[in-house]
Each structure stands twice: as structure tokens, then as C-alpha cells.
Amino acid sequence: MDIISHRSEQLKGKLIEWRRHFHQYPELSFREEQTSRFIETTLKTMGAYDIKTGIAGHGIVAEATFGDGPVIGIRADMDALPIQEKGDGEPISAHPGVMHACGHDAHMAMLLGVAQLLAEDLEAGRINGTVKLIFQPAEESTDEYGLTGAPYVLQSGIVDDLDAILSLHICPWRKVGEIQVNKGPSMANIDNFTLKIKGTGGHGGYPYQTTDPIWIGSYILQGIYSLISRKLNPLEVGTISVGSIHGGNSANVIPDTVEIKGTIRSYTHEIRQQLRNELAAVAKIAESLGGEYDLSFEYGEPALNNDPLIMDLIIQSAKRMYPNMKIYEEPYGMGGEDFSHFTERIPGAMFFLGCAPHSRKEYHLHTPEFKLDEDALPIGTAILTKCVREFLEGKLKPGGDR
């Protein structure tokens, strides 16, 4: 067994302890006060880091430097979701209506594991360079300005000197001992939209006296659902989904307005803009049918774009420690991930770490029943630590030769 994977496996008990603590005391986006204090206290016991708190609210960046060399960052997200947990066995959430249903508890535990292993390496003089461990708040939700935590970390300037950045995400559709990787666009751009269709309401018995926004909306919905099949190149990645339709409150009253809300997902800037333009064209149907409309967009995360060389670093590190590991190469889906803000500015990559429990039941992210197999924790910790060691030893440099 590789020495790093062996050391990580020896740390398993502590990784589980940390992960279960975070799981028991989850906190929502921008409210991660207890979580932040626990991380700070734990990092201080390691004695190797310059710890900066209050980053992007309750975020923490722990920095360690040993000699000249490149600078690498590793990021873990901290926040939980507004979900009431359903489960038994291991400690469940002690906070009603709040749950770590996306694995951020595991992400933080593994980054603390990386911190422990690197602190030992620093003390032994095994590292030349700088490591920044980024505990980022508010990945799941936006604030009143429409921003998640990542843009605020970038605005702080604390990661301006990074030469590379890494992250992982637990993956319940892969088994423990498997990872999923992808080079280039790997998760989606996210744009949400609100379309208000305006007409003139009236009595349901006299529809000819109205400009019925529900009737107009029925044609607009057909247009929206035909966009992907008729307007988008089938070799491109993109979709539009409607998640909310609201209009009226009574069976016999035609309303004045109908509101349609939905989301647009894409992998490239070009398709992102095309889908916005196509939706705006479809909305004009309202005018041709005698109504009016108001279309607004909420621009969310950009697509997660994994740097090919950094992804090579992840793949090589995993293979060197776990020669029999199954590595799947395919995009991660149409979900969003605000780590993408980092990869727009810094060469970086995220990989997905298999964590499916041994039971036959499938557990999905963002669900009340979500569970993970804690055997995955030492594996993720080892891969991230190995990547840092390889990078700082000059085994791989962004834009350079291997």
C-alpha cells in the first residue's frame, strides 16, 4: 500500500468522528458559525497553519508554507440544506429541518484529514511550497445579492496567488473505491428565469371578453418544450425545464397574469446565450396573441470546467495509490457547483468520489434519506493529499510539461 493511503487509512477513525460531528450539527448557507468554530479549533491543534477566519462570512482559509515553491489550494464546502432528515443508525441531524444531504460533512472531514497529513509532512520537511485549505461557506444557496460563497472567497483576494486548486464531491452512484473524472465542461451553467404573461382577466363564462394569459401560456409552454429538440444542435449539451406555473385562484375567474418559472442548463457560453435568446423569442408569442410579457433572468453559476492537466494529476495520483481503482470518465451531469467560479480564474478540477452504501437501496443527493459509506473518507483524503504532494514536487504544472 502507498504510504499516503496507508496513513490516511490509519486516520479513518478521526475522519468518521469529524464527519459525524458535522452531520449532527448542520447549518444553512451563510450561517455556518458552529461549523466554522469547530474547524478552527481542530486546525489549531495541528500547529502548522496560519488560520484566517471570516472569509466570505464564516469561511476559513488555513495556509502553510515550507520553502519556495508553487501554491496549491484545496476547497471543501461547509453548508447544509433545508431538509428534514429521515434515517436511523449513525447520529442524525440535531437541527430540525436542516441536513447534510449533499455530503459537505464528508468534504469538510476529508479536508481536515488532508490538513492533518500535510501538517505531518510539513514538520518532516517533505514539502516545498504553499498549501491553502479553503473551507468555503454557502455553496448551496445565494444571498440577497444572488451570490453564493465562492465569489466572495475570490473577492477577498486570499486565493489570488494560487497556481492550482482542487476539490472533490462525494458520488452516491459510484461504489467505494471508484471515482468519476472528466476533462473540460463537467457540470452546467445555471440560469433561472421568470416569465410573467399579462392579459386581461374576467369571468370564466365569457372568455371572449378577456385576453386569457393561461391560453397564451399554453402556446408559450409548447414553444419552450420544443426549443431543445428543434433549436439546439443535438451534439450540444443544454436543457430548459419549467418548475413552476401559477395563475389564478378560482375555477370561474380568468386571471390577469400567469407566472412561469424555470431553469436553463448548458455546458458552454455559446449555448448558454443561445438558450436565453431562444427563450426570449418564444416569450414574444404573448404579444402576437394580444398579451404582454416580462421576462427576467437570474444568472447563476458558470459551468464547471475541469483543467485537463489538473485532472491528469488527479487520475495519476489515484492510480499510483490504488492501481485497481475503477476510474470512470464522463461528465457529472446538469447540476450546478459553485466551485466553477474558482476554475474560471484558476487552473483547477473536481473529481467525484464513490460513496454508495453496500445496501441495495440507492441514496440520492438532496434527499431526506441520503446516506454514504464512510469507507470512502480515507480514499478521498489520500487522493487529495497525494495530489498536493505530486504538484508541489513538480510532477505536474498547469500549462507546462509533465
Automatic annotation (TrEMBL):
Residues 189-284 form the Peptidase M20 dimerisation domain. Gene3D superfamilies: 3.30.70.360, Zn peptidases (3.40.630.10). Pfam families: M20_dimer, Peptidase_M20. Coiled coil: none annotated. PANTHER family: METALLOPEPTIDASE, PUTATIVE (AFU_ORTHOLOGUE AFUA_6G09600)-RELATED, PEPTIDASE M20 FAMILY MEMBER. This is Amidohydrolase. It comes from Evansella vedderi.
